[in-house]
Amino acid sequence: MTDVSFADVPQPDEAARTEAVRRHAELLKPVSALGELEALGAWVAACQGSAPPRRFQRPRVIVFAGDHGIAAKGVSAYRPEVTGQLVDNLLKGAGPVAVAAAVADAGLRVVDIAVDGETPVAEYKVRAGSGSIDVEDALSEDEVRAALRAGMAIADAEVDEGADLLVAGSVGVGATTPAAVLVAALTGAEPVAVVGRGSGIDDNAWMRKTVAIRDALRRARAVLPDPVALLRTAGGADLAALTGFLAQAAVRRTPVLLDGLAVGAAALVAEELAPGARSWWQAAHRDAEPAHQMALDHLDLKPVVDLGIRLGDGTGAATALPLLITAARLLTDLPTHAEAGVTAPNA
To answer: Which segments does the entry list as coiled coil (predicted)?
Structure first.
């Protein structure tokens, strides 16, 4: 259906990963004493093709913003106009992800893909809001192609400007509803299994959300196994752009920290479109939404942290970013036993 395609995804350098593991065994610490930090550092080394890895020079947090017609059905604790308000505040540095990005010394970029209103960051805007997926397609065929290309272009621009680590986030009232539909469609889960509390909805809203997901999932399953048709039918412009962004980042050999449910759902679709892309992604945290764990399980990704965060704007990933930086720096900066003049264990 689509003429959007991705180049073959190269794989991270396994020789560099092996060398990183070997180096960890010689560093000034007991063997395996750093736990998962060692695996994270080795992943960075593999992505960079260098052991020890280089220091990150330009980590970037990219937040994709978009509205969803399904929000009008009362599936969120917030009114639809809040998306634009959140974008305005993020551009002023106000918002959890803005704080977390600043702490991690990472640049923050917000991109309006489908906000239902005017914003100053609409260069890649596809449309104002996406369709109400319980009764209509989220996007037209031209729009889903445009959204995928927008995500690809954003990834290319960031890498061309020197980004060596990307963090993906999402802002949009009602976004967890289409995200849950995508996860259910691609994992075979039933609607009730993927419904979460999202923005903090009450029981009545939870029931409305369950019905919306059920109806949208019925429509989504009719277009499987075509991932682009799935985005068109039951996704949204922001989710399609995220999909293109994640896939193209992998094509460009650039590691990505994934945030919450919306990003995880897009990652599922991106892996379908660009097989092997998941090797370039690290799950930063586990969202409180049940569908997020399903997505991570399907992608075979283990979260760096599990703090009960239920924001999808990149806060969890930006919070995990210093841990990833530390994991890489330990490989780079820590001396070996021999270099430090310390007798190695069992020597």
So the answer is: none
pLDDT digits (tens, 9 = 90+) for 4-37: 899 999 999 999 999 999 999 999 999 999 999 9
Hey, which residues does 63 pair with through a beta bridge? Answer: 110, 169
DSSP 140-164: -HHHHHHHHHHHHHHHHHHHHTT-S
Whole-number pLDDT of residue 347: 64
**For the packed helices 176-187 and 290-299, what is the interaxial angle rounded to 10 degrees?**
40
Which tens digits make up the pLDDT trace of 45-67? 999 999 999 999 999 999 999 99
Residue 1 above 50 pLDDT?
Answer: no
CATH 3.40.50.10210 intervals, the chain = 59-322
CA distances from 179 to 164, 183, 235 (A): 27, 6, 7
| Residue from 67, 134, 215, 313 carrying the catalytic annotation | 313
112 is catalytic: no
DSSP type of residue 305: B
Exposure string over 132-167, b if 16+ CB within 10 A, otherwise e = bbbeebbbeeebbbbbbbbbbbbbbebbeeebbbbb
Q: Which residue has the tokens 């967890």?
A: 176
d(CA 111, CA 203): 32
* Domain 59-322, second-level architecture: 3-Layer(aba) Sandwich (3.40)
Report d(CA 138, CA 340) in Å as an integer: 60
Q: Is the pLDDT of residue 2 over 60?
A: no
* Mean local confidence (pLDDT), 84-104: 97
Task: Tokens for 143, please give them.
Answer: 């729009």
Please indicate, yes or no, whether the overall pTM of this predicted structure exceeds 0.85: yes
Closest CA to 266 of 129, 133, 152: 152
**163 pLDDT above the threshold of 80:** yes
Mean pLDDT, rounded, for 274-289: 96
Q: Could you tell me if residue 282 is left (phi over 0), alpha (psi between -120 and 50 degrees) or otherwise beta?
A: beta
